[in-house]
Amino acid sequence: MEIVKRYKWVIIVVMPILILVLIKSIGIAHFKSNANKWAEPSVNRSNIISSEQLAEKKGDAIIINLDGEKRDFRSEGFKSITISEDSILIKANLRIIKGHSGPALLYSEDLSKQARVWMVLSQLGIKNIYILTDKQDDEVIKYKFRLDTIVRPE
Q1: For 87-131, how does the pLDDT look when each residue is reduced to its tens digit (9 = 90+)?
Q2: What is the DSSP letter of 86?
Q3: CA–CA dist 28, 18 (Å, integer)
C-alpha cells in the first residue's frame, strides 16, 4: 500500500494512457490495410476502362471529370459531373458517387491524379470505380538511347 501512495500520480497518468493504447491496438477501428489487396487491381489492370469499353457501358456509367471543364462527356451521351481532386471527399460528392447504380469512371489528363482518387475511393469501400484512359502502356521508353559521350568504347 505504501508503493501505491508513493506513486499515486504516476499511476494516475500512466494507467489511462496504457488503457487507451490497448484499446487502440486491439480494436478494429484503426486503419489496417492489406497492400496486396489494394495493389491487385492495378497490377491486373482491372481498374482501367478504355474508350472502346466505355462505349459498351453507355447509359449507366457516370464520368467524374477531375480536370474541370476541359472535356464535356454529356455531348457524348454520358452522365458527367465535375469534381476536383481536393473536394472528392466532401459528403455531397461522396453521396453522388455512392448513390449512382452503375460504374463510376474517373477521367483526368493526369493518370496519377486518377490513380490517387481511385485508391482513396476504393479504400472507403466504394465499389465499381474505374479509371478511364486510353493510355494502356504508360511505361514505354520515350527517348532514343544514346551512349554517354564521356565514355568511349574500346
Answers
A1: 998 999 999 998 888 888 999 888 889 989 998 898 888 888 999
A2: G
A3: 18
Could you count the other beta carbons within 10 Å of the beta carbon of residue 107?
A: 21
Q: What is the DSSP letter of 13?
A: H
Report pLDDT digits (tens) over 2-23. 877 888 888 888 888 988 888 7
Supply the DSSP symbol for 59: T
Q: Are 88 and 128 in contact (CB under 8 A)?
A: no
**Domain boundaries of the chain, sorted by first residue:** 35-132
Enter the C-alpha cell of residue 73: 462527356
- Bridge partners (DSSP) of residue 131 are 48, 106
For the full predicted model, state whether its pTM sits above 0.85. Answer: no
φ, ψ of residue 135 in degrees (nearest 5):
-85, 95
Give me the phi and psi of 96, to 5 degrees please.
Answer: -65, -45
Please give the CATH architecture assigned to the domain spanning 35-132: 3-Layer(aba) Sandwich (3.40)
Secondary structure percentages of the chain, helix, strand, coil, to 5: 45, 10, 45
